[in-house]
Design a protein that fits this description.
The chain is built from 4 helices and 2 strands; from the N terminus they run E-E-H-H-H-H. Helix content is 55%, strand content 4%. The chain is elongated and about 65 Å long. The protein has 2 domains: 9-59, no CATH class; 69-108, no CATH class.
Amino acid sequence: MAHTPQHRYCPSCNTNLDYVIQAGEDLRAIAQIIGGVRTGTYPVSATMHLGERYEEIVQAKPKKKRKTAKQARYSRNFKKLAPRYKKKNGTWKKDGFKRCVKAAHKASR
């Protein structure tokens, strides 16, 4: 049986064609990111540069937002007040977390 869009599952080779089609689309997208690669052909230079470009893309992380003064105050107060609302074994008392949050917000004003 020929692999056609109407037949998404090939019983002869036990393959779900949706995964095969998605993999092909992913390869085309990567090829376009690398640049200079024609659809359908993947020269050796493109496959060699793939690892380098992939690491560049993955490592390009957006800058983290800076903590505001209010967030920093709240964080300090929460850490300072938390032991009052915890048991000796380190778990929270009943409604301890909720009460600690409220007290830290109040102290942060």
